[in-house]
């Protein structure tokens, strides 16, 4: 086993709100994924997350109650992971917890982002030091607070010969462009990843997601709808930029009068929107695309990206990293970097004034 001081837990609950991803990482000379666990989110809890994200009554009380509930859920996920790995919590140096985003509004002088999942509760329940609140320091420094993963992408996937695009397709899609000479040269949210696909599928199919993109594959792209969606100002904005459910949601979709169309054709058009905005963002700046996140398992979306990209497209499995665990791995690594006082934001990606040490430390005991 790795030295106990090299063991870290990473926790991630993303925009899709489908599960808590928990990983155990060995972070000695190399990043080693030692164990993984997907912890379910109760449908009632998911509904409360989505309600607060959209805006609801009594937000202050409800958000703080949710913060404690998610802290307990993240602690449960950690303890289940460690039990599965047969590792004592005392042997883990720290937990890196992203938290659950409720709001992301980074633009302007008073921009902010809010992730909940009380790190004090996690530390108390597990007996492990927790590092959390990774995004707000970057925003305080004038950045978007997102994406944060380019630094980890460079650590995990940087190559001396190949220009690589690492594309995470979660609820939103984000891209990291890695250059052999200059490292991360760009990183930003390209727009919706799975968020509209999942929401439309849930409305019309009563399923939480379109498995393998089968429903989208059964439809035909509606050109007029696609072009209208692509005209949204977000897609024309230069980077750095980031987005969330505040921007892309069913209310946004309904402005295009989608009720007049066959639902399967709308789903096909949404899949094409995700593929187009990803490939348009690359602009020939890479030799190879590697996909991660839940969207990496959507066969229809993968086929659309392959058709549009003009370069080889694979998942990060080709680089030895399972695509569905990458973000949780990143936050284990971020915890390590914070405890070692290392700067981990990438100003070229977030727009911050400079490099910063991210995260706040919540000691055990």
From TrEMBL:
Protein name: Anhydro-N-acetylmuramic acid kinase
Stored Gene3D superfamilies: 3.30.420.40
Reactions mediated catalytically: 1,6-anhydro-N-acetyl-beta-muramate + ATP + H2O = N-acetyl-D-muramate 6-phosphate + ADP + H(+)
Keyword Nucleotide-binding: yes
Main EC class the enzyme belongs to: transferase
E.C. numbers: 2.7.1.170
Organism: BD1-7 clade bacterium
Highest taxon of the lineage: Bacteria
Pathway assigned in UniProt: Amino-sugar metabolism; 1,6-anhydro-N-acetylmuramate degradation; Cell wall biogenesis; peptidoglycan recycling
Taxonomic placement: Bacteria, Pseudomonadati, Pseudomonadota, Gammaproteobacteria, Cellvibrionales
Gene name in the database record: anmK
CDD domains: ASKHA_NBD_ANMK
A single GO molecular function term of this UniProt record: phosphotransferase activity, alcohol group as acceptor
Residues annotated for ATP binding in this entry: 14-21
UniProt xrefs under Pfam families: AnmK
Keywords attached to this entry: ATP-binding, Carbohydrate metabolism, Kinase, Nucleotide-binding, Transferase
Family as reported in the entry's similarity comment: Belongs to the anhydro-N-acetylmuramic acid kinase family.
Function: Catalyzes the specific phosphorylation of 1,6-anhydro-N-acetylmuramic acid (anhMurNAc) with the simultaneous cleavage of the 1,6-anhydro ring, generating MurNAc-6-P. Is required for the utilization of anhMurNAc either imported from the medium or derived from its own cell wall murein, and thus plays a role in cell wall recycling.
Transferase keyword on record: yes
